[in-house]
Amino acid sequence: MEMNRPVTSETNHGNLKRWGQYALLLVLTVIVLGPFLLGLWTSVMPTAEISKGALWSTHISLDNYITAITTTPILRYLLNSLVISTVTMLFQVLLCSMSAYAFVFLKFRYRKQLFMVFLITMMLPFEAEVIPNFSTVRNMGLLNHYAAMIIPFLTAAFGTFMLRQTFMQMPVELKEAADIEGLSHWQFYSQLAVPYAKISLMTLAAYSFLSSWNQYLWPMLTTFSDNFRPVQDGLRQLQGQESFNNWGMIQASAAIVVIPTLIILFIGQHYFKAGLNEGAVK
Amino acid sequence: MKIRYQRWWLGLALLLIVLPLGACARTQAASRTQIVFWHEMTGPGQDQLKQFAKEFNASQDKYQVVPQYEGSYNEAVQKILHTHGTSASPAVFQSMDVSTSQLYHAHVATPMQKFIDKDNFDVNQISPVARAFYSQGGKQISMPFNTSQPVLYYNASVLKRLGIKAPPVDPSYSDITRVAKAISTKSHGKIKGLTVEEYGWLFEQFMANSDEHLANHEDGRTGIPTKVHLNTPGTQEAMKWVKSNIKSGDFIDYGAGGQAESNEIAAFLAGKLGIFIQSSAYISQLLAGTKDQLGITYYPHRNGKPANGVAIGGASLWIGNDKPKDVQQGAWKFVQFVMSAKAQAQWQAATGYLALNKDSQAQPILQKLYQKYPAAQVPSQQLARIKANTANSGVFMEGVIQERNLTQTAMAQIYNGTPIDKALAIAEKGLNDAVANTNRANHYK
Amino acid sequence: MLESLPKHTNPEEPSKELVPVGLNSATEWRKDRLYVALFLGPSLLILSVFVFWPMLKTMYLSLFLTDNFGHASVFVGFSNYLNLFKNPAYLSSLGATFVYVIAVSILTIILGMVLAVVAQQHLKGIRFFRTLFSSTMGISVSVAAIFWLFAFNPSVGVFAQISQALHLPEINWLADPHFALLAIIMTTVWMNLGFTFLILFGALQQLPSSLFEAAEIAGVSKTAQFFKISLPLISPTLFFVLIVTLIEAFKSFGLIDLMTVGGPNNATNLLVYRVYQDAFLNGNYGLASTESVILTAIIAAITLIQFKLLGKRVSY
After folding, report:
1. How far does the signal peptide extend, from start to end residue (chain B) (predicted)?
2. Is residue C35 situated within a structural domain?
3. Is residue C24 part of a domain?
4. What is the bridge-based pairing of β-strands B192-196 and B143-148?
């Protein structure tokens, strides 16, 4: 992935230029990371000093983290989010790949029209449908339960669309050979189509996990106790119930939430980048 | 390859089954009857409620009260209405003063009077002013629980340091302007003189204190309101007062909502703000948060006119009618528990909400508090001198949350330069439209 | 095994040709129908219940006044719509939303592009910087709000401290109607940066280096190379980023809820927040449904434009 562009010959001028480039990189890094670093820094400072406006303290400690973990349900929120996002992700990968398969390899009447119907759902924002959806999950008896935050998102038109593109690139000969060998659709799907679309499936998995993890409005409307509240709304809860700001503890909670995602992101960055670009350029 | 993928499916299936189950298992408590208690208390109030639940749970072995914070007062009302009849609904819930009419008409609660009668509970020990607020037709709808008075706070130490005479205990708008200006000038702008949060509740209090009705039919006490007034001489004068302070540069605007409250309190505690108007519920927090001496006065009133008195604010406790009998009974037991003289005294000491049980004042915890901080008595003194009338007993009307949003917006507009008349007229029209729609949609006429 | 698969040569080939022969017999058809039900059924069911039905219901509710329980009670035709477009508060929400959406999209793309170009440089340790640049992707809405709330705090925030130190007029970012929306825009752009950077960077990387070698030999300046070669070539990606950013911006809710609750003076009362406020705070479900329908119309229009352009690249 490294650049192949020729670099101008090494001179003093080049050296100077390089330092300039590093300086620019550093400035940009500070801009990008500034708010994050600031948050991280205040999370190790005593709240009393933060509220006096101090930006520097000699009393650096992990006390705020200990307070957050022992006195707030922050870990429970994380667990809830993990459960919701994982289940949503697994189902989306399964159901999207199945419907995408149907649109590519199964022949049925109104296939094109049905696909259009799928595409239309991408035009309807969930945020504009929360009122009837609230009634629906209420009538299903799912309020204040993981299911309310999972079931509406078991499938996604976007995922179906993306995987359909991938399946369409599968060589014709493969399907022909499979038919001759007498593979059923299920066998072809699970043994050939799914492995073929591995990268796309991973991208979809990452995408659906993150979007589920970042859900805010819907869980806020459908959860009423810490037993089910996911982490985004948990932070809202922690932030809201401090009537005068315990800044240190709040920042520590935010850091506790963000650090795992950052680690996952850095580890999975390679896959993610490849997948995103594939999706974007197509 | 085949085997590998089969394993993958197996893993998936297992995950799906195990994860939700594991999570549910934890929420199941032992054999006690669960009493889910929804509240909207933050900070020390929340801590004290948790403490109450703990003490109540330890005092008997039949019920388990589980307090759950449900966000702001405004958020809670719709949550209560929309979970009613589902497994997610609470057994006992706290709902704010101005939602009383709406919850009453929605028939989501068992009237408190029913429990009172059944157990011959002595209601006379509870403050009659507070009881009246949550009654209809002589029957108790809900139990007044946290009752506060809006008061004016000032940093007495700062005033002393700067050589400024403290405001009188029953100040007029210009009394406050004088002090705010002096703070700002003498501290060379380092300390801001005054803030008044953009908050509908405070707006309602300006009206109450000026002896003005917000809604017709005497604020809804004699019939369902059909018309509202927000643009009145009283509100005009209050807004002009704020504007004059903005103009002279001694006012700081923290905006609206929970953030605004946190920020103004943080600034006050850090000695960067001299005066602010807020609920008495913050007293204990303010006393604990600073070494500076805390000054408290009554709610400011119009120049040259006596104060009519402000309405009690706060919230009451309701028992949902969609739960089985034993759950309701447990909820009632908990309500009785938190209304005891001892609990109410603890409540006032921990927060600043007024103890509603008459016998609470004799409790050592309050006696000690008053000795140490005489100012802590100001809210109850303010309440005691009020002669109750329909203008200072709160608005009994549906859709008050809209009123709060509209007046809050009007305040924000005024603070930022919109002419007072215009801003108030917009809010008034908006609210009249909303009231007409509400009445029409619910077939009230 | 995967590696040995012959790569399909032309992805644009219509899918029809991929459908295997031998589907003619009646039994095959019936079998397929079973598979259609199995493969498509679950997704179709979910989408019907949670996407199509609620949209119809929302449209229906938008024609009614609703009672305390949110049930349609009085049919009012289009008067909810008319009232909204006469309501200055709603119009200002609409205006604020457009300002927000456009500002966020433009700033996100420009800043993302700056980062992407800078990250192209051939320097030691550049990979580390690339990772840092993409890091805001892992920051969710609540976390971002908490970090920035602190930065904007009027007493102890960094911005307040900087302006105090420099004797500049103090700005009360979140309480001043002139600045609150700007504060939300800054926060949103910051949150978007990581994702936008990754995509633009990837697109720049995929450009053939031979083009730039030739340009270098021809003496074309770096700036001209960027505007004349890179920018046109990655324009499809730019467009993709633009649409995604636009749509996401229209759906913004969390930052508003956490940072300004729609205030001050409705300056940050964007469309989704207004829906929430009217429905779940004010209990005015009919009006909120009307606002939902308008929001849907806007987002649907943008998505249609996207489909049109995608349609040129994608076969149906």
Report:
1. 1-25
2. no
3. no
4. unpaired
Q: Is C34 left (phi over 0), alpha (psi -120 to 50) or beta?
A: alpha
Residue showing tokens 């995967």: C2
**CATH number of the domain within which C179 lies:** 1.10.3720.10
Select from B111, B126, B162, B152 the least CA-distant residue to B318.
B111
Q: What type of residue is B79?
A: K
Give dist(CA B49, CA B397) in Å, integer: 28
**Helices C141-152 + C158-165 axis angle, to 10:** 20
Q: What domains can be seen in chain B, in order of their start residue?
A: 33-147+313-362 (3.40.190.10), 150-311+384-441 (3.40.190.10)
pLDDT band at A17 (very low <50, low <70, confident <90, very high): confident
Tell me what the pLDDT averaged over chain C comes to: 85
Q: Please report how many Cα atoms fall inside a 13 Å half-sphere around the Cα of residue B263, on the Cβ side.
A: 29
Per the listing, tokens 């005593």 go with: A46
pLDDT over 70 at B86, yes or no: yes
Instruction: Return the residue of B nearest to C88 by Cα.
Output: B426
Instruction: Look up residue C70 and give its amino acid.
Output: G
* Beta carbons within 10 angstroms of residue A82's beta carbon: 17
CATH of domain A73-241: 1.10.3720.10
d(CA A18, CA A111): 57
What is the tally of structural domains in chain C? 1
Query: Measured between alpha carbons, how far is residue C255 from residues A237, C249, C259 in Å?
Result: 14, 11, 6
Q: For position A246, what pLDDT does the model report?
A: 79
Q: Residue B15: list chain A partners with CB under 8 A.
A: 86-87, 90
Top residue of A90, A225, A245 to mutate, by most chain B CBs within 10 Å, is A225
CB-based contacts of C17, cutoff 8 Å, min separation 6 = A172
Residue A184 one-letter amino acid: S
C268: in domain: yes
* SS3 state of residue B231: coil
State the first-to-last Cα distance of chain C, in angstroms, to the nearest integer: 30
Q: Does C153 touch chain B (CB under 8 A)?
A: yes
Q: What percent of chain B has pLDDT over 90?
A: 67
User: For the segment B359-387, what is each residue's pLDDT rounded down to a tens digit?
Assistant: 998 999 999 999 999 889 999 888 888 88
The yes-or-no verdict on residue C160 having pLDDT over 90 is: no
In degrees, to the nearest 5, what angle opens at C-alpha C186 toward C-alphas C181 and C187?
100
For chain A, list the contacting chains (3+ Cβ pairs, <8 Å): B, C
Which residue, chain included where needed, has tokens 């636009």?
C246
What is the average pLDDT across C96-123?
Answer: 93
Q: Parse chain A into domains and list their residue ranges.
A: 12-66, 73-241
Alpha carbon distance, N-terminus to C-terminus of chain A? 19
Judge contact between C194 and C131, C-beta under 8 A. no
On whether residue C212 sits in a domain, the answer given is: yes
**CB atoms C250 and A125 under 8 Å:** yes
Domain of residue C281: give its range.
Answer: 84-310
Contact B188, B247 (CB under 8 A): no
Q: Which helix (H) or strand (E) holds B276?
A: strand B273-279
Q: Are strands B150-155 and B273-279 parallel, antiparallel or unpaired?
A: antiparallel
DSSP A20-44: HHHHHHHHHHHHHHHHHHHHHHHTT
To test the contact with chain A by mutation, choose from C16, C139, C282, C306 the residue with the greatest count of A C-beta atoms within 10 A, namely C139
| Residue C106 pLDDT grade (very low, low, confident, very high; cuts 50, 70, 90) | very high
Q: What is the pTM of this model?
A: 0.87
Residue C306 CA: distances (Å) to CA of B383, C98, C200, C213, C299: 63, 18, 18, 34, 11
- Calculate how close chain A gets to B419, using CA atoms only, in Å: 32
Residue with tokens 């980023």: C241
Nearest partner of C261 among B422, B417, A242, A236, judged by Cα:
A236
User: Among all residues of chain C, which has the CA nearest to that of B436?
Assistant: C65
Taking an 8 Å cut-off on Cβ atoms, the answer to whether A194 and B5 are in contact is yes
